[in-house]
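Model it.
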Amino acid sequence: MKFRIERDILADAVAWTARSLPSRPSVPVLAGLLVEASGDGLTLSGFDYETSTRATLPAEVSSEGRALVSGRLLADITKSLPNKPIDVELEGTKVSVVCGSARFSLQTMPVDEYPQLPEMPSATGSVKSDVFATAVSQAVAAAGRDEMLPLLTGVRLELEKSTISLMATDRFRASLRDLEWSPEQSDLSAHALVPARVLSETAKALISGSDVTIAVSSGESGDGLIGFEGTVGTGTRRTTTRLLEGDFPRVRQLFQTQPETVAYVNTHDFVDSVKRVALVAERNTPVRLTFSEGQVLLEAGSGDEAQASESLEATVEGPDISIGFNPTYLLEGLSVMSDPVVHLAFTQHTKPAAIAGVQEIGADPDLAFRYLIMPVRLQN
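Modeled.
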């Protein structure tokens, strides 16, 4: 195996592929990055039995072959090299990496012990990469991070005809994002529960391309698989991951209540105010929001500790309401709102509140993305 490639192209692809490698692999070869040179160019692959990554990129291949080397070490090396062409060659049991006057020699791992990567399922449809990346970033805001509850660390994708719905919840908040896409079959109906971390990293990696191809296989015995593929620069990137199993909470039903109080607040000002007031909110204590005619009053802290309050202009329709929220959960939802005004809908101070974006005060909310947040019980 021998090839030459531009430094930036290789470093970026190695960094992306190696990002999914396990830090504590069950077997040593899973820490390896499979490097394959052929007449079609260069292919980099990583796999941990759950998630696979594969990047194809152009290279000047002098001799075909393949080698397995430490993925994280190769990533550290390539990003540190000068901006010159890199020559890579397999020499016996070692791989040499030469860039300018810098030279590295990496020990190889046994290629024949490396597991075979899963095949990409048949394409289910495609979606614009930038739209997909935005939708994923909004949906994963409510995904759980507790590995003891793996079901809630996923994002549920519901593929119904020309619409994809992404849903997530960690029991304290929930998200729902709908977007249009181009399915392969007009009567398509499928669903998949995808690990949120994998989905987020994949969407970010493919944002520079034009379209993302989504492929879902519906295995009945734990072999369900989803794949994402897109063009990045002059190459392609592909990720597959096993689907999570279990009955996901019925998130959509949570958004179907009729509000009694509705408020409109400038998104940027609201975010800044919550951040300031939350500085005095001790761990696990809420920021208190009181909505009344023409304003929202934000408060945090207790009488024996530091306190803060700030009022903002707001348009409030319906009865006054005081409600408390975990400031982190509130900010994580607001941070992925792209509209200039936030629309807040309340039923009672003990019931979840729905947040959505609008272009101007008084407008109907953009229901493409909705964020639901559970209140925190106030002391008084």
